[in-house]
Amino acid sequence: MVASSQPDPGPPRRxxxxxxxxxxxxxxxxxxxxxxxxxxxxxxxxxxxxxLTVHCPNPGSMKGLIRAxxxxxxxxxxxxxxxxxxxxxxxxxxxIWVGLHTLRANRxxxxxxxxxALPAFREYSHVRPEVATGExxxxxxxxxxxxxxxxxxIEVKSVTxxxxxxxxxxxxxxxRGRKHLEELTRLRRKGSRAALLFVVQRAxxxxxxxxxxIDPAYGKALRAAVAAGVEVWAVxxxxxxxxxxxxxxxxxxx
Length: 254
What we know:
Helices cover 16% and strands 42% of the residues. It is α+β, with helices and mostly antiparallel strands and 254 residues long. Mean pLDDT is 93; it is low at 1-12.
């Protein structure tokens, strides 16, 4: 795991193993993707030939993953407020499953922080999710430690895009992502720790970098935030039909 304040940290360090933590998952509905549309909808064809419209829980482009005929798995919910019973959870890419549900990344991060398994934040014993930090701005986690006056703030980003063994973020232009970086920078300048945590929801990547060709403004904002003292961390996971397993810390190349 690398947090770098330099724009070119050189060759990436090797991933390091982390304690085995997992988020349970039940993605029992199997099928093939027919299409994704209106950002939050997808049509799939089940193995028995029936077709379903399912919720797509990822607002990004899911570049390189969303193609007709790709194998997918979905979860099921009978909650009365749901308009669609099924949620698109993962898509097959080569020999691995790639997790598409952005909130799963937050659950992995919560497990990681609550277990004290991220060494840089082990001193913090109090983890609070979904914290309002400014006008119309929320970050994913606030961490506090006994005897430490200033909290730490962490924003989580789910990463699904890859080029070979290199994970990349974002997969589409993200104004919201830049806003989060600006807020982290503001909090850091006020004296709090502030960090961005990339959760890579695929097991075939060995490092993470900003996708400057997709959103150069985000890459510029990320490097400016790091120069201001914002930390950047990344972890890799393995996605299966039953769980998402935290596997290793990944270096971040800026």
